[in-house]
Structure formats: structure tokens, C-alpha cells
Amino acid sequence: MVRAGSASVVAGPTLAVVAREAGVSVPTASKVVNGRDDVAPETRRRVTEALDRLGYVRRPRFDATKTPALVDLVVHSLDSSWSGAVLHGVEEAAYEAGLEVVVSAGLNRTRGDRPERDRLDKLTARGSSGVLFNLAELSPAQYAWLDHHRIPFVMIDPVHEPPAGVMSVGAANWQGGVSATEHLLALGHERIAVIAGPRRRMCSSARVAGYRSALASAGIRHRAEYVRHAGFEEPTARLRMHELLDLPQPPTAVFVCSDRMALGVYTALAERGLKVPDDVSVVGFDDLPEARWVTPALTTVRQPLAEMAATALRLLVRMMQGERPEGTRTELSTRLVRRASTAAPPAARSGGSR
Binning pLDDT at 50, 70 and 90, where does residue 8 land? Predict the structure, then answer.
């Protein structure tokens, strides 16, 4: 039995089961599966019948001697610099490994009442040796499909906590939240808000947890009204910033859980006639090119997107070669990149009290 999310599914038969059914050794059954010609016709017939009878799925095998082998990269979308960084990392690592990459966007969880099987079926149809899923939200049925077809896969920054045994690569989001908040605390801010992504997103909840931990370590009471959730886009972040500014005691600094959202915060502040960082300090998360282009340049937490993608590709290659890497979650370090969007709070600069 293989656990996939909250559902338990029966995986396909192993080659050992097929060999036992056909009355042959596992190496002999493997020869038949791989099309070797050094097998007696009668033995081949028995093994083939057992394969069909048991529903054995012939998984594409990665062979380093074949050039090029093929892997799939399924990304959330192709219209952002976030995805561009991931593509860059996969491309470089794939070139080093001698692999070709097929890129597709927008794998849906469901289509109607059934899993989106047509997109997944294409993986086996074109002989893909493995799959990278970026920002994917797979259903239990889709996890089960991948397991049943024995296709190696690795998740890059998964939306939710993957099922047990699923390999994933991400950033140290909790530590990133700590670093952003500690930076603002060191500047003298105490009224620090956070605008996070959706509550159910794994990375979002980890960043908020880091923010809260840093406040607690500094002995500052956590204010529930200072925690706002939005989508990972500009318009909703802009609305959340307006809500924060309408509070009786608005924040003097805000940690925004993505650079793209930070652009919406900049817009909201400009609409109120406020300046960054003179009136409100802003820290983002990602370190996308936009963080350097805005004025003032955005202080942000860098997550190594290209390195995350390259690490995932290298893990996938090891799995394609039959290895099982130790551990299922790989986290790469984040670091604060200081630019011009943060400064001491206005009261501290003027010598007044906060």
C-alpha cells in the first residue's frame, strides 16, 4: 500500500511479483521487460502473459548511455520572473546531466470530477524519465497515478506538505521570516506588520511563523491585526496595506512575503502620500529582478530559486538512476539583501518617542 495524501491506493505489481507468477527469476523477467533477446520463446510468453494479467506498468528507464534522455518540468505559469529563475536553474543542471527538458504550464488538480489524466498520460507516451513539479498542487489521485506508473518526480516549492516519501526542494522560509523581522527590529521598529500569502500555502505559513518567532524573541507582543493574508500578487497586497494604514496605530514597517506583493504595497503607500522608507519601511521576499528596479530599491530576503531548481533536477537524476536520496525535504538557505527601502522609524529619526 502507498499512502497518497489522505487516500491509500494499491500500487502496481513489482517485477518480483511478475517473476513469481511466471515461474522465472527476477533477472529473467527483467530481460523480457527490457526487450532483451536472450530469453527462450516459451519463457518470454509466460512472462508477457503475467505482465498483462497483473497489469504491470513498464516504467521508462533512465539510461545514461542514451543521449538525450527526457524529463518534464511542469511549472505554475510562464509569465513571471519567478518562473524564469526556475527555468534557468533547470536548464543549466539539465545541460550538465545531458538531459532534454519539456516544459509545460498549469497542471490542474481536477477537470470535472476526474484527475487531469490526459496531461499525465503524455509523460509515459513520450517516454519521460522523470518529472519536476514547480509550485504544484497535486491531488491524492495524481500522486497515486505517478506512484502506480513508477515515474520518479521531485516537487519544487510545493504548495502543501507533500505525502510521506515524496521528495521536495524549497527555501528556508521560517529563517527568512526571522531575518526580515530581525532586520526591522534592529532598526528600531516595534510596530511591524506582515502581509503574507494564502494561509494554506506551506511557504506562507512558515514565513509568518518566523516573523512571530522574531517578535517573541525581542519581547514584543504579537498583534493579530498586524497579520494580513493576500494572494501572491500586487492588487490584493495593495488592499491589505490600505487596511493596515486605516488602523488606529498603523505599522511603521511591513514584511511582505513576496517581492511582487511588495510592489502593491509601494502603490498603496504612494496613494496615501507616504514615502518608503521615510514613513514606512518595507521588506520583501524572493529577490526577483523587480526588487532592484523599483525606487527605492527593495530590501528583501533572497531565496535561491535557480539553485533550488538545479538541486531538484540533480535529485531527480539520482532517482532515475535507481538511487533513493536520504531524507525527503531539502531546504536551501535564505539571506537578507539590504537595499534602500528600510530605515529607522520616523519617531526615532526625529528624536521623539514611539
Answer: very low
Residues 300-343 pLDDT 10s: 999 999 999 999 999 999 998 888 888 899 999 999 999 999 99
Residue among 167, 148, 145 at smallest CA distance from 157: 167
Written as one string, the DSSP assignment of 301-315 is EE--HHHHHHHHHHH
Q: How many CA atoms lie within 13 A of 330 on its CB side?
A: 20
For residue 140, what are the CA distances in angstroms to 120, 146, 285, 309?
14, 10, 30, 24
* Res 115 pLDDT > 50: no
Q: Say how far apart CA 2 and CA 333 lie, in whole Å.
A: 31
Is 313:90 a contact under the CB 8 Å cutoff? yes
How far is Cα of residue 55 from the mean position of the Cα atoms in its chain? 33
Residue type, 149: H
Q: Buried (b) or exposed (e) across 191-223, using 16+ Cβ within 10 A?
A: bbbbbbbeeebbbbbbbbebbbbbbeeeeeeee
pLDDT digits (tens, 9 = 90+) for 216-238: 999 999 899 999 999 999 999 99
Helices 41-54 + 26-33 axis angle, to 10: 80
Cα–Cα nearest to 319, from 10, 126, 137, 59: 59
Cβ neighbours of residue 39 under 8 Å, at least 6 residues apart? 28, 31, 32, 47
Does 64 score more than 60 pLDDT?
no
User: For residues 331 and 168, what is the distance between their CA atoms, to the nearest angstrom?
Assistant: 9
Taking the C-alpha atoms of residue 264 and residue 270, their distance in angstroms, rounded to an integer, is 10
DSSP reduced 3-state for 197? coil
Give Cα separations from 84 to 80, 155, 173 (angstroms).
6, 17, 20
Is 151 within 8 Å of 131 (Cβ atoms)? yes
pLDDT in tens, 154-176: 999 999 999 989 999 999 999 99
0.90 cut: is pTM over it?
no
Per-residue burial over 21-48, b if 16 or more Cβ lie within 10 Å, else e, is bbebeeebbebbbeeeeebeeebbebbe
